[in-house]
Write a structure and sequence with these properties.
The protein has 279 residues and is of the alpha/beta class. It has two domains: 2-100 and 235-261, 3-Layer(aba) Sandwich (Udp-n-acetylmuramoylalanyl-d-glutamate--2,6- Diaminopimelate Ligase, Chain: A, domain 1), CATH 3.40.1390; 107-230, Udp-n-acetylmuramoylalanyl-d-glutamate--2,6- Diaminopimelate Ligase, Chain: A, domain 1. The chain is built from nine helices and 13 strands. It has helices spanning 4-14, 48-56, 81-91, 101-105, 110-117, 153-164, 196-201, 214-222, 237-253, and strands spanning 2-3, 27-30, 36-37, 39-43, 61-64, 95-98, 121-125, 143-151, 170-172, 182-191, 206-210, 226-229, 258-261. The protein has a six-stranded mixed β-sheet, with helices on both faces. The longest helix is centred in the last third of the chain and has 17 residues, at 237-253. The radius of gyration is 20 Å and the shape is globular. The model has no long low-confidence stretch (mean pLDDT 96).
């Protein structure tokens, strides 16, 4: 028998909560990690539809990237979908754990997965965050590396759409930069617009990140940075990567639980395109 705490302890050697940003809320979110676990679900988000699927699949431990609780609940009125979701988790005895910016910062974590997905080579940290408290190795958010081959801005946008499997994305490039060859690429999963200047300082031709806002976009293109915003949901790569990681540890430690991946698409956005012409 394996408890939730055993999985948590092993994971925190890999991506310590001490690596998380001050504003973040990683770690145990809800439930009792002392209990034996029989079926673990990996997921990007914990949303009502994901919880319904977890209940249907007899899951007793959810391991998520995004924390369930960013803000304290002041009222537990279960007429509100978020609160009803908490009630469902508790009533079905499901423990929830989240690894957010600590997984973003850890070596072998989110940003290495995304850099690998983009097939970047010679990668290095985009942002230095000091030393890992466990391994004492240097860690940091984001990655920057070399693209295999050369593409212009439009070709790179199409490449990202295909690599990440998204139906649409937003991309930024001035008319004078449209044909500039892209070789060096920075990537930061989630909402990374605050660090665009680091990408520029480190010689990036293009920056891949999510949730780019209007005024930041103006500053980025003014500095001749091509930007690809495929959305926040590309971090769903964690569902398969965490499952693979847990499978490895399960074998090494003779753990006795099943691992399943969330199959619910939690991306809230749809795209409507104007087919009459291009802007």
């Amino acid at each position: 028998m394996t408890t939730g705490n055993e999985l948590i302890h092993r994971f925190e050697q890999y991506a310590s909560p001490k690596l998380a940003e001050n504003w973040d809320n990683p770690g145990l979110q809800l439930g009792n990690p002392d209990k034996t676990i029989k079926r673990v679900m990996t997921t990007l988000d914990v949303r009502p539809e994901v919880v319904r699927e977890a209940v249907k699949q007899d899951v007793d431990f959810i391991f998520a990237h995004h924390p369930v609780m960013f803000h304290p609940a002041k009222k537990l009125d279960t007429r509100m979908p978020q609160n009803e979701m908490y009630a469902q988790l508790l009533s079905h005895g499901i423990t929830v754990y989240a690894a957010h910016t600590n997984l973003d910062t850890a070596n072998g974590g989110m940003n290495d997965w995304l850099a690998s997905q983009l097939r970047l080579t010679n990668t290095e940290r985009l942002i230095d965050s000091g030393l890992d408290p466990v391994s004492r190795k240097k860690v940091g958010m984001g990655r920057i590396g070399t693209l295999n081959g050369s593409m212009n801005a439009r070709e790179f946008a199409q490449y990202c759409m295909r690599i990440f499997g998204v139906k649409g994305l937003r991309w930024l490039a001035t008319s004078s930069d449209m044909d500039k060859p892209i070789h060096r690429v920075a990537v930061l999963g989630g909402a990374g617009q605050d660090f665009w200047h680091v990408a520029v300082d480190k010689g990036a031709d293009a920056y891949v990140t999510g949730d780019v806002t209007y005024h930041f976009a103006h500053d980025m293109v003014a500095n001749h940075l091509t930007v690809i915003d495929p959305g926040h949901h590309i971090e769903a790569i964690c569902e398969s990567q965490l499952a693979k990681l847990f499978g490895k540890w399960k074998k090494e430690n003779n753990w006795d639980f099943e691992i399943i991946q969330n199959r619910i698409n939690t991306d809230p956005f749809n795209f409507m395109l104007n087919n009459e012409g291009e802007n």
